[in-house]
């Protein structure tokens, strides 16, 4: 058994560390992902040509903001504030586009 244990120990030393194989995301990574996702959704919302498409992208932005409010998610206060600004901009853009659409339909 001792020989078998030594072999296992040697194999474990040769295997890459778990972090090397599957790097874990840090808090800053999740903040970057959240912000970039919200910015992409905002740009798609601005290009959307229908109410349903705008509503879809607006909902995506709302989800990013909602997740940022979760405790323990590793979202920084600065990220949360930027997501709130993006959400506010999306809200105004979506509402203005709806007003314009209603005017054109009349």
Automatic annotation (TrEMBL):
<feature type="region of interest" description="Disordered">
    <location>
        <begin position="1"/>
        <end position="23"/>
    </location>
</feature>
<feature type="compositionally biased region" description="Polar residues">
    <location>
        <begin position="1"/>
        <end position="15"/>
    </location>
</feature>
<protein>
    <submittedName>
        <fullName>Excinuclease ABC subunit C</fullName>
    </submittedName>
</protein>
